[in-house]
């Protein structure tokens, strides 16, 4: 694994990376000017890299990461970067270069090889570098959690990861074990986790960036299913090994609060992760069971493979009641239906708060981690009908699965006026141009980072 260190003070360089805009007045070789955006050419001791002014931040990071992965062997130990970007676009480029060191299969048993990158003098470069490093390292941490094999990522492990981050970056984290979960009446979380030899946990992380207030400006709730067999309604064996990625929502939410702490954002933020392993055992919840939930509402289990919404129901209800955040956002790899609707290009966004929708949508466009709004109309309420409980955990209608799941979650928000749900399985884990296998993307970290910056500037998003 390569560890890249970025310097703003000049160091001796024998190789230079020279991005340029096509048809610009900047100097580039005649050959380089024939390149299209995303293409590069190596000449003598330089790389000429054609970039586009239309790339969003995610696209900038992607292209610079790909350039780094493909050409790093030519750089030597102390390359320089002569780049016509500033501000957030420069940060994205540096983030992409830093993320080129990520390897989902690394066992971390060898010392990292270091590479020093000199960025030519740019105003406020030190702050830019610091933020880029925080963004890249936090996103790679979230990716690593998703890519870990399930035997190294139990719910208790996830709790340990959260505690380690909190200790390192100076915020609070509490992890409840199953006994505490039962005492706290988090019945739905316990019901999902009781079928596994790895017991469930309930993670509560808190970052206080505003000493003048004890109120939470923002709370994240992330689905933390560390492996999903489907339970008694068991999944097919083909590709089940990819279900190690079913906690990508939790990884993004844990990453978001870590990044807020590292950047010292002026917000009070909480991240809540109900985490369990959905396994098959004599104690597993059964189709047809009626279970209680933290909210007091009863749930009929139609399909045990619709477990993510069960743990989130307790996470949302607990957060709304106990933390009373001004804004609450949950994120989850919840339904295949959202992938069938939107493919691998955007996550589904649900909310009735117009300001919150606008802020999240614009954050998606700016960061490049895109969202598309879906309906929460009352017309879909009947999809949750149960003859024996308050709600069922799965609609019996073979349509609108993502919408029905969002409507289910809405039941447990106690009509919170600034709640949003993000359904993102198609965005979190997929084929990668960087590796031979599918791997985590870290989707959500940069989206939520952009949103948190916007919220810090305008904290009245909870008001319609």
Please give the largest β-sheet.
Answer: 9 strands, mixed
Number of helices: 13
Question: What is the name of the CATH class of the largest domain?
Answer: Alpha Beta
What do the pLDDT scores average to? Answer: 92
Radius of gyration: 23 Å
Description:
The structure is a single chain. By secondary structure, this protein is an alpha/beta fold. The chain folds into 2 domains: 2-129, Leucine Aminopeptidase, subunit E, domain 1 (3-Layer(aba) Sandwich), CATH 3.40.220; 154-457, 3-Layer(aba) Sandwich (Aminopeptidase), CATH 3.40.630.10. It is built from 13 helices and 20 strands. The protein has helices at 57-71, 87-99, 125-147, 155-169, 178-183, 187-193, 248-263, 308-322, 336-342, 354-367, 401-410, 425-428, 445-457; strands at residues 2-7, 16-21, 40-43, 46-51, 80-81, 113-119, 172-176, 201-208, 218-222, 224-228, 268-278, 290-292, 298-300, 327-332, 347-350, 371-373, 391-392, 419-423, 429-430, 439-440. The strands form 4 sheets. Strands 7, 8, 9, 10, 11, 14, 15, 16 and 18 form a 9-stranded mixed β-sheet that branches. Strands 1-6-5-2-4-3 form a 6-stranded mixed β-sheet. Strand 19 (429-430) and strand 20 form a beta hairpin. It is elongated and about 75 Å long. 53% of the residues are buried. The model has no long low-confidence stretch (mean pLDDT 92). Pfam families: Peptidase_M17.
